[in-house]
Amino acid sequence: MAAAADSRVAKLASKLYDACADTFDPDTLFYQPDLLDLDVVPKGDVALLLQCTQSLVDQKLFRLHQSQNRIGWKVIAREDAEKLSSLNADEALVYNVVHSTGRSGVWVRNIQHRTNLHKSILDRCLKSLEGKNYIKSIHNVRAPNRKMYMLSGLAPNEDVTGGAWFTDGVLDTNFINTVAGFIEYTVSRKSWYEVTVDRERGRSAKRVKTATGKAEVNGETPKRTFIPYPMNYKGYPSVEDITKAVNESCITPVQLHSESVIQLLQMLCYDKKLVSLGEGRCYKSVKNPDIIKALQARKTPTEGVDPAPLDILGKNGMTESPCGPCPNFKLCSPGAAISPETCEYFDPWKEKVLGF
Question: pTM for the complete prediction?
Answer without folding.
Answer: 0.49
